[in-house]
């Protein structure tokens, strides 16, 4: 084992119908709550009305901040901070998927930050000047999409709409105090969103599986379990949206994928860095950006860590590698993985997201500008350079 530190203070209340506890639990955290959710929230109308009723019955004042879009923007979060100050808010509640929860985190920290909130975002990796927040208003998260694990981690991703930069803030104060995880809240998700959430969950553990430490047997087993759980259960919810058992498995898998249990000591997410640029430049749904990047990444890089890719083939897809060339085994696993992604209905090619060969150079420039380190490479095992990045994007066309 290698040295690491681990800390996760988030309390989880998990189960069908547990939303009913939101009022009393919120009352223990604050006296006036701001609900942070989407600009287009008609599909949440019943949920938001139920939640408002629970809060008010518990004596918690409520104001709504419904301005968040997919891939939340820093301008939206700035307005959220202004609303917190104007309304005297002392509790922030994120309701929705990763976009709503991440925006809630930025707003909660921004209310105590004292300077422009973009300064807390790591928008350059070659010369990091971000100033992470050191305090935030208490947060309660109510996830409606299993994907980002934002309900149990201390990361928030946001886009600067002026500079077309999407990146993250990372600080202990961004851990929510409490998350209420109620699988029934995910039953109305459209099939595409369910599939994109599944791809996102897989990508979180895939990042550490392919880019993590050489010897991490327990971590690898947890990562494989998350992948297998998602691959087993997402077809069930696509076939029956009201399958609460499968919905619950997906929600727990998405939490375990990124709450720190599966990757202590590893923090490199190079595929996400590419996906963030696809979202910021071309509006690609986050989970879809990752389902496009992952197969191309694997096809280009499998030969640099052959043992890890063969392990993936054997343990996740049950491929017999005895007596076979490692490259053939690895590429068979990649083909099967891409076939799974296609089957659940997410894009696996840039062309399917209206991104063409003429767009590649601009994508490269943004990834280099935002995410390459001072060594001129994108961190990972192995680190990749500009030529690697170009080849990955060409393979993704």
Short synopsis of the structure:
The chain is of the alpha/beta class.
Task: Please specify the SSE layout and strand pairing.
Elements: E1 11-14, H1 22-27, E2 32-38, H2 45-57, E3 61-68, H3 74-87, E4 91-96, H4 98-110, E5 139-143, E6 155-160, E7 165-170, E8 178-181, H5 191-211, H6 217-239, H7 244-258, H8 270-282, H9 286-301, H10 306-317, H11 326-344, H12 360-371, H13 386-396
Helix pairs in contact: 3-4, 5-6, 5-7, 5-9, 6-7, 8-9, 8-12, 9-11, 9-13, 10-11, 12-13
Walk me through this protein's architecture.
The chain is globular, with a radius of gyration of 20 Å. It has helices at 22-27, 45-57, 74-87, 98-110, 191-211, 217-239, 244-258, 270-282, 286-301, 306-317, 326-344, 360-371, 386-396; strands at 11-14, 32-38, 61-68, 91-96, 139-143, 155-160, 165-170, 178-181. The longest helix is centred in the middle third of the chain and has 23 residues, at 217-239. The model has no long low-confidence stretch (mean pLDDT 96). It is α/β, with parallel strands linked by helices. The strands form 2 sheets. A 6-stranded parallel β-sheet has the order 1-8-5-4-2-3, sandwiched between helices. A two-stranded antiparallel ribbon has the order 6-7. The protein folds into 2 domains: 11-186, Rossmann fold, CATH 3.40.50; 191-396, Dehydroquinate synthase-like - alpha domain (Dehydroquinate synthase-like, alpha domain, Up-down Bundle), CATH 1.20.1090. The two termini are 39 Å apart. A hairpin with a 4-residue loop joins strand 6 (155-160) and strand 7 (165-170). Helix 10 crosses helix 11 (326-344).
């Amino acid at each position: 084992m290698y040295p690491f530190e681990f800390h996760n203070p988030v309390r989880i209340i998990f189960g069908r119908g547990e939303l009913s506890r939101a009022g009393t639990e919120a009352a223990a955290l604050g006296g006036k709550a701001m609900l942070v959710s989407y600009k287009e929230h008609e599909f949440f109308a019943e949920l938001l009305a139920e939640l408002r009723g629970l809060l008010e019955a518990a004596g918690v004042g409520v104001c709504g901040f419904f301005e968040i879009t997919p891939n939340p923007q820093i301008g939206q979060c700035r307005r959220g901070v202004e609303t917190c100050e104007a309304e005297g808010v002392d509790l922030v509640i994120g309701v929705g998927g990763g976009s709503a929860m991440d925006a809630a985190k930025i707003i909660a920290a921004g209310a105590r930050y004292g300077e422009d909130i973009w300064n807390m975002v790591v928008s350059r990796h070659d010369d990091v000047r971000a100033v992470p927040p050191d305090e935030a208003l208490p947060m309660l998260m109510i996830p409606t999409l299993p994907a980002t694990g934002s309900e149990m981690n201390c990361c928030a991703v946001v886009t600067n709409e002026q500079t077309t930069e999407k990146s993250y803030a990372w600080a202990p104060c961004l851990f929510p105090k409490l998350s209420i995880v109620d699988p029934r809240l995910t039953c109305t998700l459209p099939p595409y969103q369910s599939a994109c959430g599944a791809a996102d969950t897989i990508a979180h553990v895939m990042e550490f599986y392919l880019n993590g430490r050489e010897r991490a047997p327990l971590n690898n087993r947890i990562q494989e379990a998350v992948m297998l759980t998602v691959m087993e259960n997402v077809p069930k919810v696509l076939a029956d949206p009201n399958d609460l058992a499968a919905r619950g498995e997906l929600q727990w898998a998405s939490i375990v994928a990124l709450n720190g249990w599966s990757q202590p000591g590893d923090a490199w997410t190079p595929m996400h860095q590419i996906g963030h640029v696809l979202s910021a430049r071309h509006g690609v749904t986050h989970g879809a950006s990752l389902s496009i990047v992952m197969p191309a990444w694997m096809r280009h890089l499998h030969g640099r860590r052959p043992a890890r890719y063969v392990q993936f083939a054997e343990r996740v897809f049950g491929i017999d590698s005895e007596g076979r060339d490692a490259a053939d085994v690895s590429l068979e696993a990649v083909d099967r993985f891409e076939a799974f992604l296609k089957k659940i209905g997410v894009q696996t090619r840039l062309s399917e997201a209206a991104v063409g060969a003429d767009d590649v150079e601009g994508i490269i420039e943004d990834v280099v500008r935002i995410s390459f380190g001072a060594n001129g490479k994108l961190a990972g095992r192995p680190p990749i350079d500009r030529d690697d990045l170009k080849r990955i994007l060409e393979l993704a066309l």
